[in-house]
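Hi, here's the filled form for the chain we discussed.

Project: internal
Contact: R.S.
Residues: 169
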Amino acid sequence: MKKVLAFVVAAIMSLSATAAVFAADEVSVKIDGKDLVTDVPAQIISDRTMVPMRAIFETLGANVQWAADSQAIFATKGAKLIVMKIGVKALASTVIGGESQTTELDVAPQIVDDRTLVPVRAISEALDCTVEWDGEARTVIITTAAAQPQTDEAPATEEAPASEETPAE
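And the returned structure, exactly as it came back:
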């Protein structure tokens, strides 16, 4: 009986320690003050927060398509097109009729537990959001362009001092 009781106590302590470790590893994402709700939690992979592609793109107002045969991600928002590929550490963004740019990623998009995870900062910044990290709360804070404070003031410019000299004739 004592052996069974000791085993039960040890099992409970082990489960409690495991739950504490999982809680310490949790990371959350807030967009304009609201929690990003996903079917798979955000994960830190190689020091980068990764989230399900559809959740982040759609919450930020983009349409997203998955090309299974090429394992490519296509997202559009307004005149902007974003392309990523599983296993490739690059994000290509193009403004239709304008400039294109490629951003090198620290972590490539990847499939984890049948979900395509993408780096939240890269996606957010490509869609003109600002991104902050609250390390103490383990929270990514995203502010969309629409929620960022707008200023109507034009940037101040310095005028050149008027010359006191009269040009020679």
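Let me know if anything looks off before we file it.
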